[in-house]
Amino acid sequence: MKHLFLTLATITTLLLLLSTPPTTTAANAADNIVYDVIGEPLQAGQAYYMVPYDYSDVGGGGLTWLQKTKVTCAPYYVSQENVNTNFGQKIAFYPQTPGQTDITLSSILNIVFSSFTPPINCPGTSNVWSVAADPATRLNFIELRGSRGTRDLRTWFTIEDVDQGGYKISYCPRNRRVDCGSLGIVSRDFGRWLGVNGTNPLTFVFESEEFFLNKALGTKSYAA
């Protein structure tokens, strides 16, 4: 009889544990999701405009691609539009983890310009962001020469939360051959270039295509 009561008690305890909803786990998972400006989870492979959280802090607009020289097949670099009324080009995120649909904080991912078509006569050029060291300046800029889904550590970034609002893009390869840091703007060579440990670290928000079009048409208010 004693063993019977112990068995019944054990079964009751297990049933209680199984029936208790994992609220803490669910809340933690929700806290790790990256959201766009209207509170929707950022989706892998979907196009977004990545724009400054506070335009008044940086003076520029969204992100685009640009060559530093007019030499044929010169590398394309990620740069910031000079005026804040230009929201730049569409960007998509692809997590390293297969099957991941929601973009989460600190998850390793590739970043691509979804509307950039590499010139067919320029091998190596792609739409994937990659960190490239500049020996002349000893700075690390973001160029378009990566491959999505490879083991190339130069192409893997993370999105991190910022206490004051918005998000930052971080780069910290495991081999630590370059300095870890957030992406920011480096103003030089007649341009505003995106680089690691930039002189002006940049805080971003993400706007979906639908939201961007509604904002442009004035049919929805902008509330970052």
What is the percentage of strand-forming residues?
Answer: 25-35%
Number of domains: 1
CA-based shape: globular
Beta-strand segment tally: 13
CATH fold-level assignment: Trefoil (Acidic Fibroblast Growth Factor, subunit A)
| Mean pLDDT score | 82
**Tell me, what is the CATH class?**
Mainly Beta
Q: Structural class, from helix and strand content?
A: alpha+beta
So how many helices? 4
Low-confidence stretches: 1-27, 220-224
CATH architecture: Trefoil
Please summarize the sheet with the most strands.
Answer: 7 strands, antiparallel
Order of helices and strands: HHEHEEEEEEEEEEEEH
Helix content: 10-25%
Distance between the termini: 65 Å
- Rg, please? 22 Å
Can you offer a commentary on this structure?
There is one protein chain. Helices cover 18% and strands 30% of the residues. By secondary structure, it is an alpha+beta fold. The protein has a single domain, classed as Trefoil (Acidic Fibroblast Growth Factor, subunit A) (Trefoil). The strands form 3 sheets. Strands 6, 7, 8, 9, 10, 11 and 12 form a 7-stranded antiparallel β-sheet that branches. A 4-stranded antiparallel β-sheet has the order 5-4-1-13. Strand 6 (129-134) and strand 7 (139-144) form a beta hairpin. The longest helix has 18 residues, at 2-19. The protein is globular and about 40 Å long.
